[in-house]
Amino acid sequence: MVAGIRSLSRPINHAMNSERSRLSGSAIELVNALLAGLGSSFEPLVSLFMPTLLGLCGRTNKVFTSRAKACILAVIENTQLPSILPYLADSLTQKSAFLRLVAAEGVLACLNCFNPPDIEKDTRARLIEDVIKLTARDASADVRRAGKMIFEAYKALLPDRVERLVPKDSTHDIHC
Question: Where is each CLASP N-terminal domain found (predicted)?
């Protein structure tokens, strides 16, 4: 199944990127159905579809952005794959404020639904720490607000690592 989907990924991505909202919407619905059915077996397809979905969030058309955001959150919830985190973190440096907000909300969703041992790995924890630092300095108030919620979730999941991120005497000052 995954091999067949992989072979169709180029036309599916092309359809998702289409300016025709019906075609794009149908392609996004297909990806939603695939990830719901495959669950964690969707992992080999993450690298094929996440960049396109995140790219759609950078558009100005609300129909495209809301569909893509819903699909990204469904990918996170249905697959619970930590391999999604780097795609979200990379999106936090993009020009689009909405894309940065979707990426921050995606990281928060990851923290809320992934198994803590998956997040506790040093490289992933460092990635989340970098996300917290990026969101704290973001130009968008909504992204900073999401960053504060990421920090709160991070504190609850990884209390031993908080001191590495923020000195003990200034923990309460972050995002104030």
Answer: 2-166
